[in-house]
Amino acid sequence: MPSPIYLTDEIRRIEQAAGEVDPPLMERAGTAAAELAARLSSDRQKDILVLAGPGNNGGDARIAATLLRDQYFRVTLADAPEIPADKPWALVIDGLFGIGLARDIDGTYARIVDYVNRQSCPVLALDIPSGLHSDTGRVMGRAVRATHTITFIGLKPGLSTLISACRRRTRRPGWHRASFSATCSSPGRATSTREWPGRSASSAARAA
User: Fold this and answer.
1) Which of 18, 70, 83, 105 has its CA 20 to 30 A from that of 118?
2) Which residues partner with 176 through β-bridges?
3) What are phi and psi of 197, to 5 degrees?
4) The pTM is what?
5) How far apart are CA 75 and CA 86, in angstroms?
6) Could you report the per-residue pLDDT of 26-75, keeping only the tens digit for each?
7) How many domains is the chain built from?
């Protein structure tokens, strides 16, 4: 079935309408992200790098980092605006900036994005790759080139633009949607789902 696409303002209204839910939306997002990260990180001898920014996206990333540590993954949590010590990462989780980003990424954060884009491991973005405008798909100075994106509540217009652009890149995402979260991932990979009030659990897949 067709996947609904929401502008940032519409996502905010959905979040407000949901009110207080149990578990909270941030916990649901972090849990879904950790589940997908565990499936993407096949080598437990290498660390998972979790980049946590200052907003809600960073909160999702911190929850995911805690849950992955509980599963005995080796996790490096970078929640300060500085480039982490280099390692052969198994996975990078991009929780720097989400749909609330309103200005271009520059300075240290731009250098962190450049660092992420130099990695050869899978890169999992939370909600939307950092630096990508949620409504238009415009690159805000710099943008993370994620191999996988797990996006919460619904797809964003910027992700559709991203998919078209990535057809010409080495990293080639596709996507599929579930009731709580929609996910953008490499073709042939499945992802976890969470229930969202008022929606049936359904999914559709499209290869890039």
Assistant:
1) 70
2) 183, 205
3) -55, 130
4) 0.78
5) 13
6) 898 899 999 999 999 978 889 999 999 999 999 999 999 999 999 999 99
7) 1
